[in-house]
Amino acid sequence: MVAIVAGLLGLCPRAGTGAAHPQVAIVFEHAGASLDDLKTIYAMRRPFGLGIFPHQRYSAQIVRDAAAHGLTPMLHLPLESINAADVGPVGGIVWVRMTDAEIARTVAGDLDSVPGVAGVSSHAGSRATADRRVMTAVMKALKARGLWFQENRTTPRSVALDVARAAGMKTVLVTTYLDDPPTDMDAKVRALLRTAVRQGWAIAGAHITTGAPEIVARHLAEFDDAGVVFVPITRFVAAAHP
Fold it and tell me: How crowded is residue 40: how many other Cβ atoms within 10 Å of its Cβ?
């Protein structure tokens, strides 16, 4: 069963109870290096979220294309992980060793490479998100741009949402992926559907190169038959409550 936590730390989804139909948001991550990887996502014509790496060949173009296709484009912000391999060969990484000024410049540069994003999601970050000083510097830079923050939690020691909420930022938490690990994805998509029907809402994440978009596409008719509608991730972005 897909377990999705959005009520943790006082974050309650705005959709769900009282909604005419169960609502689901899916965010696909790791865009930027290829345009072909996105064809299936665009063809589904659903308002998915799209996490875009900074400084990649097609990063800026994908922001524009995603918005034109009705998706929610986000900067997929690379953050230092305990296991370096988790971050992967991407640029614009926020390292714990950086000073606050260096973090601010890095985040600003990342955002400048993806002009027009609606929000920011975290990539990796098991080390950085557990460091309050680092996350304070990150959130300060994001808040200055008027952006909200989606955490893809990779460690129970994370303080990222605490820091963001203390700064008065809007946030959303995704703790479960349809392809992490990339096995039994059909079963995970069906579990997502059951979760949405049972509680009236559901949130999930996935990656663009694992085959997850194709599997979601294969099950769209099941969501439609059950009366479940796909909504933008912004439907679940909650205002901070100081």
Answer: 17
How many C-beta atoms surround the C-beta of residue 10 within 10 A? 11
Q: Is residue 12 scored above 90 in pLDDT?
A: no
Euclidean distance between the first and final Cα of the chain, in Å?
33
The model's pTM is 0.92
Instruction: Output the six-digit token pair for 62.
Output: 């994908």
pLDDT of residue 1: 35
Rounded Cα distance, 199 and 135, in Å: 32
Give dist(CA 71, CA 64) in Å, integer: 10
Residues 6+ apart with CB under 8 A from 168: 143, 240, 242
pLDDT tens readout for residues 157-199: 999 999 999 999 999 999 889 999 999 999 999 999 999 999 9
Output the CA–CA distances (angstroms, integers) from residue 38 to 45, 49, 183, 214, in the order listed.
12, 12, 21, 10
The region of weakest confidence among 14-28, 65-79, 157-171 is: 14-28
What is the helix (H) or strand (E) element at residue 111, kind and residue range?
helix 100-112
For 34, the token pair is 């290829």
Q: Quick check: 74 and 119 in contact, CB under 8 A?
A: yes
For the four alpha carbons of 126, 127, 132 and 137, in that order, the dihedral sign comes to negative
Name which of 172, 85, 93, 170 is nearest 134 in CA terms: 93
Instruction: Report which residue type is found at 48.
Output: F
Per-residue confidence (pLDDT) for residue 143, from 0 to 100: 98
Gyration radius of the chain's alpha carbons: 17
- φ/ψ of residue 185, rounded to 5: -70, -30
Structural domains of the chain, with CATH? 23-236 (3.20.20.370)
